[in-house]
Every structure is written in C-alpha cells, then in structure tokens.
UniProtKB/TrEMBL annotation, chains A, B, C, D, E, F:
UniProt cross-references to Pfam families, sorted A to Z: HTHP
UniProt organism field: Brachybacterium avium
Protein name: Hexameric tyrosine-coordinated heme protein (HTHP)
Superkingdom of origin: Bacteria
InterPro entries for this protein: Hexamer_Tyr-coord_heme_pr_HTHP, HTHP_sf
C-alpha cells in the first residue's frame, strides 16, 4: 500500500498541496485500518460529528504544514 | 471544490492571513463532509459547545501558523 | 469583526506577545460563535473544567509559538 | 497579572527553559480562570486523571518547543 | 527495545519517511505498554473507532513533520 | 526535581533523543503530579486504554520534534 502518492511532497500549487495533505491523512487511516468495509462503517460516525470532523481537520492542517514547508510555501 | 481560495498562501496582512486560516479550516470540513445540509445540522453542536469551539480554534491556530510562516510573519 | 488587533504580529515584548496570543485565540472563538450571549453561557462550562482550560491553553501555546517566531523570540 | 515571568523567553539552561514552559502554561490557566479557589477545586480533577495529565503535558511540550527555539536549543 | 529503527531519521524517499513515522509512533506505544497481549486486546478498540484512528493519524502527522524536516523534505 | 536529565537536549543519536523525549514527557507528569503512589494508580488507566496511549504518544512526538531540531536531526 502506497502512503505517499508519487513519492514526493512537492506540488505545483497550494491547492495541490492541500489535496496531498488530505490524501496523506486518509492513506494513513487506511494503513492503520486496512479493512475497507470497516472504514466504510466508520465514515458516518466521523462525517456526521462536528468534533470528529474538527479532529480530522487538525490532522490535515498538520500534514499541510509539512507540505507547505516542503514547497517553501509556493513563494516561487 | 476549491480548498485554497486564490490558490495562494500569500496575503497582504495578518488580518487577511487569519481569515484565510479560518477559510482553509472550513473548506477542509466541507471537503470531508460535502453535504451542506449535514454541516448545517452539525453547526449548533459545535457552535454551542465550549470544547468544540476550542478544538476548532486549535485548527485555525495551526493553519495560521503555516500561513504566517508563508508570509514571513508580515515583517515586510 | 477584527481578528488580529493592530493587524500585526509584532510586539515589543514577550508579555505583549503572550497577551496577543490569548486575544487571537479569543477573537477566533468570537468569529466562530458571534453571539456574545451564547459565549457568556459557555464561559462557566470551560472556565470551571480542568480539561477545557487545558485545551484552551493548548490553543494559546500554539498561537504564541507563531507570535514568538514572528518576533524572532524577542532576542533583539 | 504577569503572563511571562521576567518578560523574556531566554534562559541559561534547558532545565530553566522547561520550568518556564510549565510556568507559561500555568499562568495562562490562571489568566483564563483568575479565581484561585476555583483552580484549587479543579486541581484534583486533573492531577488524578491520566488523560488530563497527558493533555497538560502536551501544552508544556508545545510551550517548551517555543522556548527551546528561542534559546537556539542551548547549543551555546 | 529499539525506538528508532536504524538509529537514523534519514530515508531515501518520502514513502520510506512516512513508514518510519508510523513505526516511530507504534514503537512508542510499545515502549509505554510493553505487554504485547494487552496491545493486541487494545487494537480493535482503536482500529474500529473513527476518532481513535484520527488521533493516531495526528501522531503520525507530527512524527512525519519531524522526519520530513530531517530529510529537507527530500528536495534533493 | 530535575525536569531535563543532564540539563541538555543534545544526544549522540536519534535513539538517545527518542528516549530523552519519553523522559521529558514522563518527568513533566511527575512534576505536575509529584505523588508517586497516585501515578502508580493512574498507570493502568492509561496503559490499558488505546486513546490514552495515543495521547501520550502525541506528547512524545512533540517532545521529539524539539529534540530532533536541537540536534539538527543528527545529520552530523
């Protein structure tokens, strides 16, 4: 199972970087819980709970922090 | 769905940067829960709970950390 | 509603920087829950709960991290 | 109420830096809940709960991260 | 018990770095709870709970932040 | 009570750095709850709970981030 698509943190734009952050977060969940049917069962639990969504947002914010630094904040 | 408005982390001022941080956090919630009606139902749950608001504030603080670094802290 | 008082992260001293960190955290809560009467109702819930206060302290610590870096840690 | 004792993040040693981190965390709790008698009531709640202590430890770790960077990690 | 496999944070690629981040996180859990049978009992509790998986994802994101910085984001 | 063993963040290797991170986290808990008998009572509560272990792992990850930066990631 691939954890870092394209095996790189470098993206052309912040938008791509943000989507990579979401992907890294999701791939890690998939790595820790490889059973897709279990993940499917869990989805409503977090997608319909404000605090669960916020906690997931915190993970994306942390991943994005890393990716943004990797890309020197796309100051280009 | 656009996750990073204007596809840039660069803003003219800290105030703009702070609003971008809130926007990034909110757009990510929207990306993870695309159903606006569900988000509408969830809003009272977090907007009327001290810990939920604090957790959301933690996400904004993390996003702002990234944006502030991107803008070299607007040291101009 | 202003989120960053003075529209700057630069302060003369760490003490001012710390107070700005608390202000940023509080202003964000106010931005997410603009109804002052609701915030008033919520205050006892977090001000009288150890974990709630700790979580709020985590937000201030994260905001201060950003402000301290902005001011090069007041190494002057 | 003083939030940053000595109005400086600079300390002679990591040990002093660590104690400053604990102090910053505690002073912020005191700033958010100025009533010492309430804090006294709350202390057992967090000091006798593993997760509460861990959450408080997370705040200290974040504060220390800032102070360590301020002191260039005492690489002297 | 070894906490950092290979006693290095340097990896050839982001993918290796990401796996090292997961390993660091897991090894620390093992260090704090050395009883493998207990960890086995605990696994379903976190692997079948959305918030638990998210919290574990937050740890991996933080570890990866460190490893990515160590490898200068594999900008090579 | 000593919070930073050896009063230094500098270690020869990542492995030593990781152990120092665990020690810093534990020493802070001990500082906040000095009663060893209470800590003994609390241990099973966190060592047998997946989320508690994860939260403790988050603290270690944050402490390690600081120590790794202090040692320039042992890039030597």
């Amino acid at each position: 199972m691939e954890l870092v698509p394209g095996n790189s943190l470098l993206t052309a734009t912040p938008e791509e970087g943000r989507r990579l952050a979401v992907t890294l977060a999701r791939k890690t969940i998939g790595f820790m819980q490889p059973d897709a049917s279990v993940r499917e069962v869990l989805r409503p639990a977090y997608a319909n709970d404000a605090d669960s969504l916020t906690a997931a947002g915190q993970v994306v914010a942390t991943e994005f922090q890393t990716i943004a630094a990797a890309n020197d904040y796309w100051r280009g």
